[in-house]
């Protein structure tokens, strides 16, 4: 306890770190405040239909990422997701289109261009999703739309929703520039955490209603949740260290290189993207739920407790893990960077043999990482089968838990870096905290 208090005092004594924490908390408070401001022309007392519909599938995921703003018809209902979609699209384009790759390799100026194109694409994506949300409100929340405002609702709502998403995007960028951690990731995490107290109380009340034994079951659930979080931390921070030697260089009277370092290859290089892709694919059959021939398939696809759903979901996650890792991980570029910096892997020739060796090592560690990621993805379904309420079960795995753990690790890593720069002890005695932000390309340089 004394060590913990000393660490907090050290954190608060650093002016720069204290300023970053205050700015981050202030902007997050503004975001959460905006999530409770209802769209013009909506009666907030008649939104029960939206809350009941946004519990599963893609709508449930969107509502979770927006902290409940989607089901509350807030001005921030679309949240940061249009920006995320635009960013993923631009990331894939920089991999698939050679011209985009050239722009990305231009350094800071190229990255500035890509960021600007991402913002323009965000506006387009938001407008499309905003009109879809208007249709959604007219179908399910038509009783909540005030009659005197219904004639203007289709025009004002897309404008307000687009402005709200751009405001959230601006908040995220300000947190990244002036605050602590990645602003976009923090905003998503705060939206997910906003559901935790209510889900916690629902699970507590459900177990209390079963009698005295329910309290013991609840304690066991919390213990299992802590164990899952600890395992997930190991998965996120797990790396395979490939030894790298650098040749000695004599420049004047000084010697450069000659040191032995390690190339950290992450077990879970794909992050949360395979689970997001898998959820999107599993949601597609639910679009045809109204047809009699596809009704059974849609029911299986929308029920995370179904064993067939779990098997298909796990296979998709494993497949997308390999696919996305192959897209974002370039062994050839890493081998070229090593050769350019006079680095080599002991026993492996520079150039293409090095690229082949790094690729083979990455394939070997991606396989267990993909299986573990698939297990994490289907854990909420198992939790529901064991009697845990749907809201609380979502925190036992899946996208929510992965994002929460990853963002918290990233933020703690930045805090620890600030402490070590000023000669303070780190946050842990056993070693350094590793977040998701450490990339292979940065490690090589």
From TrEMBL:
Lineage of origin: Bacteria, Pseudomonadati, Bacteroidota, Chitinophagia, Chitinophagales
Encoding gene (name): secY
Keywords: Cell membrane, Membrane, Protein transport, Translocation, Transmembrane, Transmembrane helix, Transport
GO cellular component, one term: plasma membrane
Lineage top rank: taxon: Bacteria
Similarity comment: Belongs to the SecY/SEC61-alpha family.
Complexes and interactors: Component of the Sec protein translocase complex. Heterotrimer consisting of SecY, SecE and SecG subunits. The heterotrimers can form oligomers, although 1 heterotrimer is thought to be able to translocate proteins. Interacts with the ribosome. Interacts with SecDF, and other proteins may be involved. Interacts with SecA.
Subcellular locations according to the entry: Cell membrane; Membrane
Biological process terms in GO annotation: intracellular protein transmembrane transport; protein targeting; protein transport by the Sec complex
Pfam families: SecY (PF00344)
Transmembrane residue ranges: 21-39, 75-97, 117-137, 149-172, 179-196, 208-236, 269-291, 311-330, 365-386, 392-412
Gene3D superfamilies: SecY subunit domain (1.10.3370.10)
Protein name in the entry: Protein translocase subunit SecY
InterPro entries: SecY (IPR026593), SecY/SEC61-alpha (IPR002208), SecY_CS (IPR030659), SecY_dom_sf (IPR023201)
NCBIfam families per UniProt: 3a0501s007
Species in which this protein is naturally found: Puia dinghuensis
Membrane topology, from the record: Multi-pass membrane protein
Keyword Heme: no
Keyword Transmembrane recorded: yes
PROSITE patterns for this protein: SECY_1, SECY_2
Any coiled-coil regions, as ranges: none
């Amino acid at each position: 306890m004394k060590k913990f208090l000393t660490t907090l005092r050290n954190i608060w004594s650093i002016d720069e770190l204290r300023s970053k924490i205050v700015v981050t908390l202030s902007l997050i408070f503004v975001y959460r405040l905006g999530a409770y401001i209802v769209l013009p022309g909506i009666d907030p007392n008649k939104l029960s239909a939206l809350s009941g519909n946004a519990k599963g599938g893609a709508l449930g995921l969107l509502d979770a990422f927006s902290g409940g703003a989607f089901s509350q018809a807030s001005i921030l209902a679309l949240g940061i997701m249009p920006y995320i979609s635009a960013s993923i699209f631009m990331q894939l384009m920089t991999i698939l289109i050679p011209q985009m790759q050239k722009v990305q390799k231009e350094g800071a100026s190229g990255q500035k261009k890509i960021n600007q194109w991402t913002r323009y694409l965000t506006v387009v994506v938001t407008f499309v999703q905003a009109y879809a949300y208007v249709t959604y409100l007219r179908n399910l929340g038509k009783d909540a739309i005030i009659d005197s405002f219904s004639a203007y609702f289709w025009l004002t709502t897309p404008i307000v929703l687009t402005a709200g998403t751009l405001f959230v995007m601006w908040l995220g960028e300000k947190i990244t520039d002036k605050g602590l951690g990645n602003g976009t990731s923090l905003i998503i995490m705060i939206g997910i955490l906003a559901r935790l107290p209510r889900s916690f109380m629902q699970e507590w009340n459900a177990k209390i209603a079963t009698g005295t034994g329910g309290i013991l079951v609840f304690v066991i659930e919390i213990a299992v949740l802590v164990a899952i979080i600890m395992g997930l931390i190991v998965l996120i921070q797990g790396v395979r260290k490939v030894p790298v030697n650098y040749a000695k260089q004599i420049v004047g009277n000084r010697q450069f290189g000659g040191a032995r370092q390690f190339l950290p290859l992450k077990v879970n290089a794909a992050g949360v993207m395979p689970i997001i892709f898998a959820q999107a694919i599993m949601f597609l059959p639910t679009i045809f739920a109204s047809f009699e021939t596809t009704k059974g398939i849609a029911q299986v696809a929308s029920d995370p407790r179904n064993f067939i759903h779990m098997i298909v979901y796990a296979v998709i996650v494993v497949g997308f893990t390999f696919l996305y890792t192959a897209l974002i991980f370039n062994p050839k570029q890493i081998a070229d960077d090593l050769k350019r910096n006079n680095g080599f892997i002991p026993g492996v020739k520079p150039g293409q043999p090095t690229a082949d060796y790094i690729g083979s090592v990455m394939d070997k560690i991606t396989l267990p990482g993909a299986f573990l990621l698939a297990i994490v993805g289907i854990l909420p379904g198992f939790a529901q089968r064991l009697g845990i309420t749907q809201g609380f079960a979502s925190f036992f795995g899946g996208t929510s838990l992965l994002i929460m753990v990853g963002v918290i690790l990233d933020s703690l890593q930045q805090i620890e870096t600030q402490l070590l720069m000023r000669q303070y002890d780190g946050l842990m005695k056993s070693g350094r905290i590793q977040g998701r932000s450490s990339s292979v390309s940065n490690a090589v340089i």
